[in-house]
Amino acid sequence: MLVSSSWFLVAGLIAVVMAPRVEEASPGLGALKYVAGLAFAVVLYGSVLLHEASHAFMARRYGFPVSSITLHFLGGMTAIEGEARKPREEFMIAVVGPLTSLAVGGAAVGLWFLGPEGLILMAVEGLAGANLLVGVLNLIPGLPLDGGRVLKSVVWGITGNPHRGTIVAGWGGRVTAVAVIAWPLLQEQLLGTRPELLDFLLAFIVATFLWSGSTAAMASARLRSRLPHLVARDLARRTLAVPDDLPLAEAVRRAQEAHAGSIVTVTGAGRPVGVVSEAALLATPEDRRPWVAVSTVARNLDDGLSLPATISGEELVLAISRAPAAEYLLVEEDGTIYGVLSTADVDKAFRESHH
């Protein structure tokens, strides 16, 4: 679990804002009223942690690794690795958070009926109000809110297209952002209370968070919709296998003769050990090439540079990001060499799929 620096700022702000109410509920505390206010902030964020932990629990149940839970000034964030494979998974992982908040709020309301007094009453009321509010607001159907992910799962379930679900939920988030910005202006007409500078500031911060989150999700969906066009087998260059101790000049001559776009070095037994780096090859002067072994310009395959020839889409992009390189060897299931995949060719195919 991580706690961002902005959390401490907000916890301090809550302590200052709550101090007069603490004084009212329990007079004569003096400076301790700020400590009580800080304790209230910790309890409040404890319920936020429960909300995020429920997302993490559900994600793990479906087999997704959870790398971290971060508490920040606007609440919390659970970093789940991978994307939901089915609409049901997306729905369950998303909806469990708001339901947890509503359950905590409901439990606090139950405690209120037991008749607590003083600081306990203040904490119970605060906990009930905050959690019911968080639960309801998080169900608003717009990304990056949980309700946006619920909407995405519904649209995905109806259309069979997760990217369309994200675009619809992203627009829901943008509409929500506009509504948040407009709220202080409508506040006086609807509630009869004049908005203060703090109302405008909070509205701006929340609206910016919603707009940027929804826009990022929509951009990501557009990128992901192009990923299925990336098929390693279709992008592979014809390759030539040469002994790793062969002079570089001879390896280049053989590759040109065979019209191969890449060179792979192999052991005497024929096991592939390296992929020749195009950049390193071009950087070697021609007059030196007869005197250096081809292995000197090859990158070792142990660095995650050997990929299955069947790899494609998001899986391919993740494999490239895990072990960044200019070239990768593609091998068949039986271990035979299929070809070499160049990152430049993947980038080019990705750009062309956009047009």
Structural class: alpha/beta
Main sheet: strands, sense, barrel:
4 strands, mixed
Q: Strand order of the main beta sheet, please? A: 4-5-6-7
Q: Which H/E pattern describes the elements?
A: EHHEEHHHHHHEHEEHEEHEEH
The oligomeric state of the chains shown is single chain
Which features characterize this protein?
355 residues, alpha/beta, CBS-domain, four-stranded mixed sheet, 60% helix
Please explain how this structure is put together.
It is a single chain. With 355 residues, the protein is α/β, with parallel strands linked by helices. It has two domains: 2-139, no CATH class; 232-354, CBS-domain. Helices cover 60% and strands 13% of the residues. The strands form three sheets. It has a four-stranded mixed β-sheet. It has a three-stranded mixed β-sheet with strand order 1-2-3. A three-stranded mixed β-sheet has the order 8-9-10. Helix 9 links the parallel strand 4 and strand 5 (262-266). Helix 3 (87-112) packs antiparallel against helix 4. The radius of gyration is 29 Å and the shape is elongated. The protein starts with a strand and ends with a helix.
